[in-house]
Amino acid sequence: MALVIETEGALLPAVLDLPEGRARGAVVALHGAAAGHRDFFLYEQLARLLTPAGIAVLRYDRRPGADGHDVPLAVQVLRRQLGDIPAGLWGYSQGAWAATAAANDDVAFLVLVAACGISPARQMRFGTAEQLRRHGYGPTDIAELTHLRSAVEKHQRGNLSRSEAQAVVDRAASQPWFPLSYVRRQLPEQPGGWADMDFDPALSIAAVSCPVLLFYGETDEWMPIDDSIAVWRRIRTVNGHPEPTICRLPGCGHDPTIGGDSNLAAVSPLYSKTLLTWLDRQLSVPEPR
After folding, report:
1. DSSP string, 16-60
2. Which of 114, 129, 218, 273 is packed most tightly, with the most Cβ within 10 A?
3. CB atoms < 10 A from the CB of 238, how many?
């Protein structure tokens, strides 16, 4: 079913994939950083997997510069279309941050793929260093990368002048690994531009009370999965909530796919099986006594 989500003057094309008969639950798919279109293969796979199990899936195009207001609006769309059924959020990578922050009383459950438990700045430091390692660069190059990203971060926080930070960028730009640093060749004139770089996900995690399923590829190339899992377990324990269900995916990186391929055929069977089993448990109606 084609839909449009209207939010603050923006019209977001959307698709609501419906099961045959009445839906027993619903999921809103939230976007990864580079996966803002409703037809991204992981969102399509979600719809193909869940609708035969009686679960509706809402997927939509992310608007440029989205500020998070689209998430509750998407849940409201589900309520209008499907009535009062359990609705949860499925978030991938950056979308996992958004889903965690949006998990209010209207959200029945969270399914998060590559949910980072550290700040965006720390995550990018880890991820870019890992890119260099995987491309064969050694400790000296990684130390230079760390110095580069540290200087840029200080400038973005307003703690280092543009000229000083740009000088560090200029020196690093001659290195063959510079394209893997994800640093702009010319820094903006004014600091800022990454307002949430030091955001602590633990603050959002602490407010989550609904059931949570976490997926992590064992060879994730962009985030430290052990550190992230530790944060989720610690925060949930401190706040008296049940520990999240955690599924580590062998052979998978940041995407829940085998071998790093980005297509439907490569999606991990363990991911699909675990997701279906877990959602079935969340949506099962207790038998009357």
Report:
1. EE--SSS-SEEEEEE-BTTB-STT-HHHHHHHHHHGGGTEEEEEE
2. 114
3. 11
